[in-house]
């Protein structure tokens, strides 16, 4: 005897199984677990991937370079890191393309150790030029030589005559390094930057998401979705679905901000309720601009040219970096 | 007569070595040629680079003036780490090997520490020792410690106890037994530990530089990786390999001087007769 409840349950289960079967599995290697990927986590938590027929497997890597290596090696379908890493790979002849943006602007903030801040004699709410000047000769931790966080702080500090001594380390290690007094400051995305402030080891010196750095040095993207041109050509349906997820995410954040905040807070348990709320308010707009233009890429190329770290980057056609 | 036979065998060994050296050189050159050729044919220099590009990267590194300073830092970290880890591993291994009850009591704890995936401790070392050279020295020392500890511990435990008893009965002091029997007996094992531990000292320094650094060979390798510069990565690896081989050669020389009286064959014979 089949009851009505069992029948309805069976139909529901069958629908779920059908949806799961229909969903295409995609492996996405991301460069870190910072709030640059807060939008991605919201999309994941809100079910926007299955809605568009995708079943993502998100793997957090050690760096953007490692994420791209996973794509180039064929173990991941997509990678996400800053455009700098894509340009570095393109200079080496790899045909990588950017599909869409995950984070517009700069999520990385500079947290200065309390000792260095006190020694500087400058208040955390002083004009940014003053705050940049005190960074001269200080050891500041950065994620890597190609990190999207590096250039803005280097260019902005050099513009006021300050030369920062950059030290490279992973973002989770930065909090410990600041706490131990091993570095004078860190440039990290939330939650790491916020944890360093909330545990009392540093003070928020310059906020990336609040656009405190001068506009010309700010990146157009700090985390974008990348894949090989070969993969994009072979899987136009998956590319289209990924783009639909990006558009749906922008709608979701705008139409259901409270729900989005709850999902984000769940994805970043190290943030307390107040920090999560602040972080959401600061970053939500940056997760909601998935489109990238050749002008954006041109600007990223100019950034790399000015840094001098990537010889040959000026020869890259900006349009060739973006998947149409 | 014995001198004549030993000089004859020495010549034979030299001849065999020079024969081996030629073959090894040939294998090396063939390997390089195959690498260069395969990389060119399959356009694989992004993945595996090629010897000519690696050489160019090495030259560029040298000309930039960074090679010397990077080597100095990495060697300093690995060298001090090696000495600290060897001394600590040697002393602890000797004490626990000699005092059997203490060894039996503490062995499970040392084994537990040894089984820890040490790489996972690297970020914690930043917290404990900062990002300067101390961090890398301590990481290298930790890796070397276990290598030297286990071989010394094993070697000391294998000291002929009957010989020790006989020496004691004949009136030998504790110091005399240590210096005349225990230490010489376990010396071969200690050197084996040192030989195994030496590359680990370099690994420790490099891992430390991977986690946080401003300079050093590991830092350059990581930096090159960031830019997908495979040739520079290989250049760094080759430099590390060369350092390792040179240091191992030096250690072998020291070992042959220190253990002049106890060649490997003598040791094997002695073990065979006990």
Quick overview:
The complex is a heterodimer of chains A (324) and B (274). Chain A is an alpha/beta fold. Chain A has 16 helices and 10 strands.
- Beta-strand residue fraction of chain B: under 5%
The parts of chain B where pLDDT drops under 50 for at least 5 residues are: none
How many H/I helices of chain A?
16
Low-pLDDT sequence parts of chain A: none
End-to-end distance of chain A: 56 Å
Distance between the termini of chain B: 29 Å
Order of helices and strands of chain B: HHHHHHHHHEHHH
Query: Main β-sheet of chain B, in a few words?
Result: none
Shape of chain B: globular
User: C-alpha Rg of chain B, in Å?
Assistant: 23 Å
Q: Describe the oligomeric state of these chains in a short phrase.
A: heterodimer
Computed CA radius of gyration of chain A, to the nearest angstrom = 21 Å
Strand order of the largest sheet of chain A: 2-1-3-10-4
> Mean of residue pLDDT of chain B?
87
Characterize the largest beta sheet of chain A: strand count, sense, and whether it forms a barrel. Answer: 5 strands, mixed
Chain pair forming the biggest interface = A-B, 33 and 23 residues
Mean pLDDT of chain A: 89
Instruction: Estimate the strand proportion of chain A.
Output: 15-25%
**Count of helical stretches of chain B:** 12
Going by helix content, strand content and strand pairing, the class of chain A is alpha/beta
Structural account:
The complex is a heterodimer of chains A (324) and B (274). Chain A is α/β, with parallel strands linked by helices. Helix content of chain A is 49%, strand content 18%. Chain A has a 5-stranded mixed beta sheet with strand order 2-1-3-10-4, sandwiched between helices. The longest helix of chain A has 20 residues, at 236-255. Chain A starts with a helix and ends with a helix. The mean pLDDT of chain A is 89. With 274 residues, chain B is mainly alpha-helical. Chain B is built from 12 helices and 1 strand. In chain B, helix 8 packs antiparallel against helix 9. The mean pLDDT of chain B is 87. Chain A binds chain B through residues 63, 65, 68-69, 85, 88-89, 91-94, 139, 141, 144-146, 165-170, 172-173, 176-177, 179-183, 309-310, and chain B through 46, 123-124, 126-128, 130-132, 135, 211-214, 219, 222-223, 225-230.
């Amino acid at each position: 005897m089949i009851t009505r409840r069992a029948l309805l349950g069976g139909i529901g289960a069958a629908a779920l199984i059908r949806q799961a079967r229909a969903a295409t599995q995609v492996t996405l290697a991301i460069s870190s677990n910072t709030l640059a990927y807060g939008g991605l986590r919201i999309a994941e938590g809100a079910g926007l991937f299955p809605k568009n027929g995708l079943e993502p497997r998100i793997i957090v890597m050690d760096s953007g370079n490692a994420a791209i290596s996973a794509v180039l090696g064929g173990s991941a379908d997509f990678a996400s890191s800053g455009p700098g890493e894509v340009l570095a790979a393109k200079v080496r002849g790899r045909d990588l393309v950017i599909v869409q943006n995950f984070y517009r602007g700069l999520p990385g903030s500079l947290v200065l150790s309390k000792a260095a801040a006190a020694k500087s004699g400058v208040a955390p709410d002083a004009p940014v030029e003053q705050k940049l000047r005190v960074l001269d000769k200080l050891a500041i931790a950065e994620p890597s030589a190609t990190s999207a966080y590096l250039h803005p702080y280097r260019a902005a500090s050099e513009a006021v005559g300050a030369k920062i001594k950059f030290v490279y380390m992973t973002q989770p290690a930065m909090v410990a390094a600041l706490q131990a007094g091993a570095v004078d400051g860190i440039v990290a995305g939330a939650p790491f930057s916020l944890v360093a402030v909330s545990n009392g080891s540093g003070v928020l010196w310059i906020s990336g998401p609040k656009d405190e750095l001068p506009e010309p040095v700010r990146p157009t993207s700090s985390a974008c979705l990348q894949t090989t041109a070969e993969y994009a050509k072979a899987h136009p349906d998956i590319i289209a679905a990924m783009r639909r997820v990006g558009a749906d995410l922008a709608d979701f954040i705008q139409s259901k901000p409270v729900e989005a905040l709850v999902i984000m807070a769940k994805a970043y348990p190290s943030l307390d309720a107040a920090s999560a709320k602040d972080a959401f308010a600061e970053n939500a707009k940056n997760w909601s601009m998935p489109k990238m233009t050749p002008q954006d890429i041109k600007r990223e190329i100019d950034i790399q040219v000015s840094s001098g770290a990537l010889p040959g980057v000026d020869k890259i056609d900006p349009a060739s970096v973006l998947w149409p | 007569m014995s001198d004549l036979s030993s000089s004859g065998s020495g010549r034979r060994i030299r001849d065999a070595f020079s024969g081996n050296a030629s073959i090894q050189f040939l294998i090396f050159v063939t390997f390089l040629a195959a690498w260069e050729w395969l990389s060119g044919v399959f356009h694989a220099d992004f993945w595996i680079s090629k010897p000519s590009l690696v050489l160019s990267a090495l030259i560029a590194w040298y000309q930039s003036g960074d090679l010397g300073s990077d080597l100095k830092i990495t060697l300093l970290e690995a060298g001090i780490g090696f000495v600290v880890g060897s001394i600590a591993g040697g002393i602890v291994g000797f004490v626990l090997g000699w005092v059997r009850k203490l060894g039996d009591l503490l062995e499970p704890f040392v084994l537990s520490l040894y089984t820890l995936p040490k790489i996972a401790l690297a970020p914690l070392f930043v917290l404990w020792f900062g990002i300067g050279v101390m961090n890398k020295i301590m990481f290298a020392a930790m890796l070397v410690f276990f290598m030297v500890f286990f071989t010394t511990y094993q070697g000391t435990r294998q000291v002929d106890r009957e010989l020790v008893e006989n020496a004691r009965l004949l009136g030998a002091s504790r110091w005399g037994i240590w210096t005349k029997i225990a230490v010489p007996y376990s010396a071969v094992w200690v050197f084996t530990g040192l030989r195994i531990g030496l590359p680990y000292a370099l690994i420790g320094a490099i891992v430390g530089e991977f986690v946080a650094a401003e300079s050093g060979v590991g830092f350059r390798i990581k930096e090159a990786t960031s830019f997908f510069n495979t040739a520079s990565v290989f250049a760094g690896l080759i430099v590390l390999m060369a350092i390792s081989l040179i240091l191992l050669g030096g250690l072998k020389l020291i070992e042959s001087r220190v253990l002049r009286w106890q060649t490997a064959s003598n040791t094997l014979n002695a073990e065979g007769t006990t």
